[in-house]
Amino acid sequence: MTTIYDVSRLAGVSAKTVSRVLNEPDKVKTVTREQVLSAMKELDYSPNASARQLRLGGFTSLGLLLEDPSSGYQSRFHQALLTACMEAGKHITVELFEGVKPDWKARVDRFLTEGRVRDLILLPTLCDFTPLKAHLRDRDARAVLIAPSVFDPYFPSVVMDDRAAARQIIEHLFSLGHTRIGHISGHADHSASILRRQGILEAYDAAGRPRPGAELFASGDFQFRKGIAAAESLLSLPEPPTAIFAANDETAAAVSMVAHKRGLSIPEHLSVVGFDDAPIASAVWPPLTTIAQPYLDMSRRVVQIVDAWDASFSGGTASTYLTKHELIVRESTGPASR
Fold first, then answer.
1. Which conformational region is residue 26 in: left (phi greater than 0), alpha (psi within -120 to 50 degrees), or beta?
2. Average pLDDT over residues 186-203
3. DSSP for 75-105?
4. pLDDT digits over 70-94, tens only?
5. Is 53 contained in some domain?
6. Can you give the pTM of this predicted structure?
7. What is the C-alpha to C-alpha distance for residues 280 and 264, in angstroms, rounded to an integer?
8. In a domain, 330, yes or no
9. Do 170 and 286 sit in the same domain of this protein?
10. Which of 122, 187, 184 is nearest to 148 (CA)?
């Protein structure tokens, strides 16, 4: 089947130019427009009428690309986006992005066309995948980035203050008398992992305390199994921490399991803090102190951005929108035991 990209190659122009000839022909130079029309005729290219109508306006569906639908973070955002879209009278179309395979661009193109999508939401780590964002720009598609590690002037972003949240957790533990605090980080490429570590160190600096040694930092990669290994490592130290701040609630649940197996009582012997306020935070015993990410507020902001999309975004002046988090104190944290 002939595509817009076949036409662009034959005409010697970009796919974006072909799209403009189809949708806004009066904005394309006559010579260029004739080149494109000639290529379309030679290739017997007939644009899909419904897809063309969607490009002209009236979109109601947002597109969501998921790398790992089973992860607590992505599934919670999916649920929140469903709610926000329902409230706004929109629909959401979801596609699995299975990594950088040879045909990934073609799969994205099919998703945009067949899924009737122009506006996308990119979660970490896709929000930092530069080739994807460049391809979307070539397709005249639009995207809102959730928690990118680097500001992108061509795509608006919605974030929460991970650094402030991590600092608030450490200050809460300081208030309970904890000074030796372990941290199990998330994925090294995730911006939240970097920002939360910065927040931890800021809390120590602000309190005038020596920064924790490298032995108190372990990687859990946001995964339960890796969280078990990280917790075993921290609790096997000659001087183990009296509190552990985990990158997410799943990892914190892994810490609780390891502590229980070692005969440690929470929070009498060890305080545990998670992040996200996922369902597991209330399901484990004792329930986890955690940070409630503003999934629904962030999702509503995404819908607002799409509804009020400003053409200036494509000119490199996109904005970042900050949403508020909340520290939820539950029974997993208590006074330091030593």
1. alpha
2. 89
3. HHHHHHHHHHHHHTT-EEEEEE--SS-TTHH
4. 777 888 899 999 998 888 878 899 9
5. no
6. 0.73
7. 20
8. no
9. yes
10. 122
In this structure, the dihedral spanned by the alpha carbons of residues 19, 24, 30 and 36, taken in order and rounded to 10 degrees, is 20
155 and 301, same domain (yes or no): yes
pLDDT at 122 over 90: yes
**Do 35 and 112 share a structural domain?**
no
What would the DSSP string read from start to end of 215-269?
A: GGEEE-TT-HHHHHHHHHHHHTSSS--SEEEESSHHHHHHHHHHHHHTT--TTTT
Instruction: Please report, as a single letter, which amino acid is at residue 33.
Output: R
Of residues 326 and 28, more confidently modeled: 326
Residues 207 and 287 in one domain: yes
- Alpha carbons within 13 A on the beta-carbon side of 156: 22
CATH of the domain at 228: 3.40.50.2300
Question: What's the token pair of residue 241?
Answer: 């921490």
* Structural domain harbouring 88: 59-160+296-324
The reply to whether 335 falls in a domain is no
